[in-house]
Amino acid sequence: MIRAGSLKETLIFEALTKEKTPSGAISKEYKEVFRCRAYRKKQSIITGDENAKEQFIGQMTVMLVRKYPQINYNCRVKWAECTWEIKMIEPRDNELTLTLKKLNT
After folding, report:
1. Handedness of CA 82, 7, 71, 19 (dihedral sign)
2. For the segment 3-54, what is each residue's pLDDT rounded down to a tens digit?
3. How buried is 17 (Cβ within 10 angstroms: 0-12 exposed, 13-18 middle, 19+ buried)?
4. List of domains in the chain
5. Rounded to the nearest 5°, which phi and psi values hold at 24?
6. DSSP letter at 81?
7. How far apart, in whole angstroms, are the C-alpha atoms of residue 90 and residue 19?
8. Quick count: other Cβ atoms within 10 Å of Cβ 60?
9. How far apart are CA 90 and CA 97, in angstroms?
10. Could you give the 3-state DSSP secondary structure of residue 5?
11. Which Pfam families match (predicted)?
12. Which ranges of 1-105 does DSSP label H, i.e. alpha helix?
C-alpha cells in the first residue's frame, strides 16, 4: 500500500501526437497528457569500485504510483529534468510499479 504522504515525486506523462501544420505536413511531438504523484523506490548500490551494476542502476529507476488508465507503454515520463521510457508496468491492487529507463535526449 502506498501512503498519501509518501508520494513526493511528480511524474509528467507524455504521449506521441500527430499534428498537421498549416503547410499540410504532419509533425510528431510528445505532448503532456497526465500528471501524477509517485514514490521512488530505493535501490541498493554496492560500495567500493564502480562496477556494471552501479552504472545500470544509474540509468534505471523504479516508481510506485496509483493505478490510472492513462499510464501505458506508449507514454514517456518526465521526471528530475530527464526523459524516461517505461520499460515495465507491474499492476498490484490499486497501484502500479513502473520501471523507467533514462533516454539519451
Report:
1. negative
2. 878 999 999 999 999 999 899 999 999 999 999 999 999 876 655 555 555 5
3. exposed
4. 4-102 (2.40.10.270)
5. 105, -10
6. T
7. 32
8. 14
9. 5
10. helix
11. Phage_HCP (PF05521)
12. 52-59
pLDDT higher than 80, residue 1: no
> Which own/partner contact pairs does 85-93 have at CB distance under 8 Å and 24+ positions apart?
87/60, 91/67, 93/1, 93/67
Q: At 21, list the grid cell.
A: 501544420
Query: Amino acid letter at 95?
Result: E
Closest Cα to residue 92, out of 22, 41, 49? 41
Cell of 42: 530505493
How many residues does this entry show for the chain? 105
- Distance of CA 92 to CAs 2, 50, 65, 104, Å? 11, 34, 10, 30
CA angle 44, 59, 38 (to 5 degrees): 70
